[in-house]
Design goal:
Helix content: 40-55%
Strand content: 25-35%
Order of helices and strands: HEEEEEEEHH
Largest sheet: 7 strands, antiparallel
Shape: elongated
Structural class: alpha+beta
Distance between the termini: 22 Å
Strand order of the largest sheet: 1-2-7-3-4-5-6
Number of helices: 3
């Protein structure tokens, strides 16, 4: 019984590793960056806690009205809003969060543009955040250590039974 639990948990850990690679590492090969949505400004189209995929290789000249883009505001803040208007001459976008009553203050220049949002997975960002926290990492490491010790203990019991 204990062996089945151990094997099941190992399978679960393997699944998490493969899923993590597919969701977070593989997109990087294609210059697609996953991000966790922290605010509700794009609801209901993209809800808080979603993981969004931002294509960094889509040039700003290819963006059209209704596209969702990611752009920088200041040094550190990244925003993800919908393009309401494109001004190709001025090289700017007028953007607005779907849940916001009015457009963003000031246009977004091409130089602030980070990429185009090409997809999202709802709610999974919450789980990813928990697993990336210190507590989440400690729990995962603790489970792995526990499983290794349990497996060793089961192996010793089997050896003792066969020795008798």
């Amino acid at each position: 019984m204990a062996e089945k639990c151990i094997n099941g948990f190992y399978s679960f850990l393997l699944f998490l590793g493969v899923a993590g690679a597919v969701l977070f590492l593989l997109p990087g090969i294609f210059r697609i960056e996953p991000r966790i949505v922290m605010s509700g400004s794009m609801e209901p189209a993209v809800s808080t806690g979603s993981i969004v995929y931002i294509a960094k290789n889509v040039k700003p000249e290819l963006i059209e009205e209704r596209d969702i883009i990611a752009f920088r505001v200041g040094e550190r803040m990244q925003v993800m809003h919908r393009v309401m208007k494109v001004d190709r001459e001025e090289k700017t976008f007028i953007t607005k969060g779907d849940a916001n009553a009015s457009a963003d203050i000031g246009p977004v220049g091409y130089d602030s543009y980070e990429g185009k949002v090409i997809g999202h997975i709802p709610a999974i960002g919450y789980l990813v955040q928990k697993l990336q926290s210190r507590v989440g990492v400690a729990i995962m490491c603790g489970c792995i250590v526990f499983l290794v010790l349990l497996e060793q203990w089961i192996g010793l019991r089997k050896k003792r039974r066969h020795a008798i």
